[in-house]
């Protein structure tokens, strides 16, 4: 097995929205804001090569939305999904599986693209199975008013219309290891219904793709919960349970949205679970 970090593009989000009720003097110590109160955000995906299987976890925003849409998110840097795949020696047509932690636009937008005539949409990975879970799919395709702007039908429905959509097993338990994929899954409901957090055994290490359970290293303190979470009081015990396991077992946490700290470990302290070490992508995967 080989793992490849895939940078799908950087953007910015409002720091207050990213940290909810936490005062700016606290969160800005780890996530400094610009003059518009915006903080740096990454779209860092993960590619798993295992035999003849090539699985991409999340896909970033993609590029099919309007200039007005992207104007709200201040894209920066020159990363793209296609460019990052090419740098690792792969093409979109090589991907056999696309695993989507959840269906918010910044995690699944790159899964669907314009067709060649720009009159409709098609899966961007024509040879891949697209993985979600049934409870989250129903949540996303019949969205509540709070999340409706994050669940864009053009990002989601073409997966099903193409016949490429598959569901992992019914997530009745917090952890699932009995599925068709090459990794286990931790299910979390605080951010959105049945977000999936993959955990991968790699060279004696446990690599955990954190998605929005832990967006950045600055979100380690339990009350530091995003304003985007639909059930923040549920996020806190989910985060506490997971971070205690991560500290106990020395998990390596792969941070999808932290533009400056790709991979971290955590440790127990008198103040709770806190940052232990930071790693570059090359340090862990080369």
Could you characterize the architecture of this molecule?
By secondary structure, the chain is an alpha/beta fold. The longest helix is centred in the last third of the chain and has 18 residues, at 232-249. The strands form 3 sheets. Strands 9-10-11-12-13-14-15 form a 7-stranded mixed sheet. The model has no long low-confidence stretch (mean pLDDT 94). 23% of the residues lie in helices and 30% in strands. The protein is globular.
SSE topology sketch:
Layout: E1 2-14, H1 15-19, H2 24-27, E2 38-50, E3 53-57, H3 67-71, H4 81-87, E4 97-99, H5 105-108, E5 112-114, E6 121-123, E7 129-132, H6 134-141, H7 153-161, E8 165-167, E9 175-176, E10 184-188, E11 195-202, E12 205-209, H8 232-249, E13 252-254, E14 263-269, E15 272-279, H9 281-285
Parallel strand pairs: 3-4, 4-7, 7-8, 12-13
Antiparallel strand pairs: 1-2, 2-3, 5-6, 9-10, 10-11, 11-12, 13-14, 14-15
């Amino acid at each position: 097995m080989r793992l490849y970090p895939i940078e799908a593009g950087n953007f910015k989000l409002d720091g207050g929205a990213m940290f909810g009720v936490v005062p700016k003097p606290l969160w800005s110590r780890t996530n400094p804001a610009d003059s518009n109160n915006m903080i740096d955000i990454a779209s860092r995906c993960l590619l798993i090569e295992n035999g003849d299987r090539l699985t991409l976890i999340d896909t970033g925003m993609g590029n099919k939305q309007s200039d007005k849409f992207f104007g709200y998110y201040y894209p920066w840097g020159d990363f793209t999904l296609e460019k990052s795949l090419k740098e690792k020696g792969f093409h979109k047509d090589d991907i056999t599986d696309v695993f989507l932690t959840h269906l918010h636009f910044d995690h699944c937008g790159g899964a669907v693209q314009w067709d060649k005539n720009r009159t409709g949409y098609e899966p961007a990975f024509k040879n891949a199975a697209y993985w979600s879970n049934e409870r989250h799919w129903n949540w996303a395709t019949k969205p509540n008013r709070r999340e409706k702007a994050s669940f864009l039908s053009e990002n989601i429905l073409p997966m099903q219309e193409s016949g490429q959509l598959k569901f992992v097993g019914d997530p009745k338990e917090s952890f699932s290891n009995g599925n068709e994929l090459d990794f286990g899954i931790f299910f979390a409901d605080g951010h959105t219904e049945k977000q999936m957090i993959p955990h991968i055994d790699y060279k004696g290490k446990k690599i955990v793709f954190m998605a929005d359970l832990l967006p950045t290293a600055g979100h380690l303190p339990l009350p530091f919960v995003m304003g985007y979470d639909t059930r923040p009081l549920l996020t806190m015990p989910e985060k506490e349970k997971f971070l205690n396991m991560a500290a106990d077992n020395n998990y390596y946490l792969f941070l999808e949205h932290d533009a400056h700290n790709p991979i971290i470990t955590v440790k127990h302290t008198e103040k709770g679970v806190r940052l232990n070490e930071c790693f570059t992508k090359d340090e862990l995967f080369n």
